[in-house]
Write a structure and sequence with these properties.
heterodimer, A: about 130 residues, mainly beta, 8-stranded mixed β-sheet, 8 strands, B: about 100 residues, 7-stranded mixed β-sheet, 1 helix, 7 strands, globular
Chain lengths: ~130, ~100
């Protein structure tokens, strides 16, 4: 089935305890001519997930400043959304999950809900 | 990346579920005898209206009998994903697994 309306996760049951590991990559916007610009679109972080028993990756929009938590700091995702991409292979297709979230915060120190004013895009000097 | 499964927030992802009917039974021959591995059932969701919801229950759950459009809920639901392709393009097929179906 397709689940066209998307999947809303139960983050506690799906991921369990999450520990911060590292910044994995920064994705840059593309210029009109297809070259890579210096403007960051999103940042992907590696987190250790207890329930999944592996490292997971979560992408946070660039309007959230760079997160520099300590290694193994307990963190929490804000509004995580999971989706998949399928790639055709020589026989059948492979599926990869990916997770996007609004923010990444230290556990128990959640940012005030609905406080969008803090999230206004920071002007990155080009 | 790979995930073993994801656990949906049932309320937000599926809303109210209604029983639609039985689906396929997966059987395999073990020592010359047919044994049931899993049974699938179709459900209607008032959130995911595009397709019906196909849920797979393990053999231990036994056979289920409900009235058509009877309100039901799932026990320990989890979602996995597998791929299929049409031509050169890949698509995702979500599979919903649960331990049991009970009356809501």
């Amino acid at each position: 089935m397709r689940l066209a309306q998307g999947i809303i996760l139960d983050k506690e049951k799906t991921f369990g305890l999450l520990k911060f590991s590292a910044l994995r990559r920064e994705v840059f916007l593309q210029n009109e001519d297809g070259t890579v610009s210096s403007e960051v679109k999103e940042r992907t972080y590696d987190l250790k997930s207890k329930e999944q028993g592996r490292m997971i990756q979560v992408s946070i929009p660039a309007s959230i400043p760079l997160k520099e938590f300590d290694y193994n700091a307990e963190v929490e995702m804000v509004n995580p959304v999971a989706d998949t991409v399928a790639n055709a292979t020589f026989r059948g297709a492979d599926v990869d999950w990916f997770i996007k979230a609004d923010d990444l915060v230290l556990k128990g120190k959640a940012a005030p809900i609905g406080d969008k004013s803090v999230k206004k895009p920071v002007d990155k000097g080009k | 990346m790979e995930l073993k499964y994801v656990i949906p927030n049932m309320e937000k992802t599926f809303g109210n579920l209604e029983y639609a009917g039985e689906g396929k039974v997966e059987q395999r021959r073990v020592n010359g005898r047919m044994t049931t591995l899993s049974r699938s059932y179709n459900l209607y969701s008032d959130v995911q209206r595009a397709d019906d919801i196909e849920v797979v229950l393990p053999q231990e759950a036994g056979e289920k009998f409900f009235e058509h459009e009877e309100k039901v809920k799932l026990v320990n639901a989890r979602i996995t994903a597998e791929g299929y392709k049409i031509g050169d393009r890949g698509f995702t097929n979500y599979k919903l697994h649960a331990d049991d179906i009970v009356k809501a």
